[in-house]
Amino acid sequence: MPTTTNNKNARKATRPTKVGPNDMGKLPPQAIELEESVLGALMIEKDAFTTVADLLRPDVFYSNQNQRVFEAIAALAAKEQPIDTLSVTEKLKSLGTLEEAGGVIYLSELTRRVASAAHLRYHAQIIAQKATAREMIRVATEIEEMGYDETQDIEDLVGKAESDIFEIAQRNQKRDVVQIDSVINEAFDRMKLASQNEGNISGVPSGFTELDKITSGWQKSDLIIIAARPAMGKTAFVLSMAKNIAVNYHRPVAMFSLEMSNVQLVNRLIMNVCEIEGDKIKNGKLSSQEWKKLEYKINDLKGAPIYVDETPALSVFELKSKARKLVREHHVELIIIDYLQLMNASGMNFGSREQEVSIISRNLKVLAKELSIPIIALSQLNRSVESRTGVEGKKPQLSDLRESGAIEQDADMVCFIHRPEYYHLYSDEKTGKDLRGLGQIIVAKHRNGAVDEIWLRFRSKYAKFQNENEEYDDSELPPLPAPGEMISIKSSMGDYADGAQLDNDNNNAPF
Description:
It is a single chain. By secondary structure, the chain is α/β, with parallel strands linked by helices. Helix content is 45%, strand content 10%. The protein has helices at residues 2-14, 32-44, 48-52, 64-78, 85-95, 103-112, 120-148, 154-171, 180-196, 209-215, 234-248, 262-274, 278-283, 288-297, 316-330, 353-371, 390-393, 406-410, 489-493, and strands spanning 223-228, 253-257, 306-309, 334-338, 375-380, 413-418, 438-446, 452-459, 464-467.
C-alpha cells in the first residue's frame, strides 16, 4: 500500500502545472488533455508522426514537459528511428531532459491514456490553434506595453506590430495537398480564356506589342523585376505601361512610388499622355494650342483606374496590407513598386542590407502568389555596367543586380532597360541599326517562357516609351556625329565613365 501511495503522489507530481489566470482572470488558451493524447498516440502508432509533422512544433505545446517529450519524438523521427516509450525515454536521457519531461512514469501514463489515434490530426490542429491564440495574446500584450512607453518611436512600434503579426500569419499559412485533377481543370480553363483574347494574351497586357508576344501579358502570381542603371527610364517605362493598362485596356493598376510624390507622378503621366514637355508642365508656360491639347487629352486620364501611393520608406508589411485592400476594394490587377531598394522590412533586425533586400523580395513573391496578381518591382543595378565598353558591353546582366542575389532567385522574370544612346552609342556595330531614340528591353530571366530582346521607341521630351513602329517626330533625335568622327565612351561621358555619378537616381537626368 505505501508503494501505491507513493506512485500516486509521483504521478500527481509529474502532471503538467497549469499557469494561473492573467490580470483579467483568464487562463491562456490551452488543451493539456489533447497534448497528452497526441503525444501518447505518437508513441504507440507507427508512422503517426508524419500525420502531424506539418502542424506541430515543440513550442505549440502549452506544457513545458510536453514540449520536451515532443522534442525527443521529433529528434527520433528526423533520424528515422522507432518511436515508442523506451526509445523516447532513451532520447530524453541523452538530451538530459528526462526529469524535465516528467520522468518515466509520465511517459508511460501518456500511452495508457490513448484509446485510439483515429482523430490524431484533428487533435493536433486544435493544439496548433491554441498556440496561435497564445502567440497573438503575447504579441498584443507587448504592443500594448510599448504603446504606453512614451520613449518609443511610433513608427518603430507600428513596424514591430506589422512584423510580429506577419510572422504569425506566415507560420500558419498552409495549404492542403490537392489531387491534380482540379489543377488540370483550372489550367485548362485559363487556356480557353487565353485563346479568346486578342493576340493570345493570357495575362495583363503591357501595351508593348513585341514584349507581350514574349510574356503573353504579365502573368498572375509572378514577381517581375525591371532593373536598370539610373537615367535609363525605369519610371518612364512603368508609367507608360500603367497608362496603357489603365487607359487603353481599362484594367485597374496600382503604383507605389517611394521616390516621387503623387503630384510628380501625375505630372509625368500628363507629359506622357498629352505629349507636353516636363518643364512646361512644371512652370505652366504653355502656348494656347498646348493648353487646348492639355484640356482635351487629360480627359483620357480622368476616371482611369490608376491608384497611386506616395508613402516614403514603405515597409514590405505595410505594402502587403495596402495591396490586399486595393485588390479587395478596387480589384487591382497589377501592382508596381518604384523602387525595391527604397523599401524596408521595418521591425526586423538584419545583419546586412543584402539580407533585408532578400526578405523584401521573398515577401513580394509571396504577396504576388497570395493575391494572384503580377507584381512589378523596379530595381537598381550596380555600377559594374559602367566599366564595360561597346554596345554589347553596356548591356546589363543578371550579375549586375544590386544588393542581393535573392532578387534574381525570387523573381519569375527579370527585365533590363538599356538605352545605348545614353552612352553615346548611336548605331549597332553589327547590324548598322540606328539606335537614336531607342530603348532595349532585355528579358534576361523568364521562368515560364523564352528570354529575348525587343526595341521600344523612347521619347525623352515626354518621358514616354512606345512601340518602335508607332509614329513620332524624328526631329527629336540628336544629330549623328560628323563622318569619321570617333567618339570614345571615356571622352564623351567625361566623369560618368566610371559610373561614379550614375549611382544615384536623384542625379540631373529627369528619367
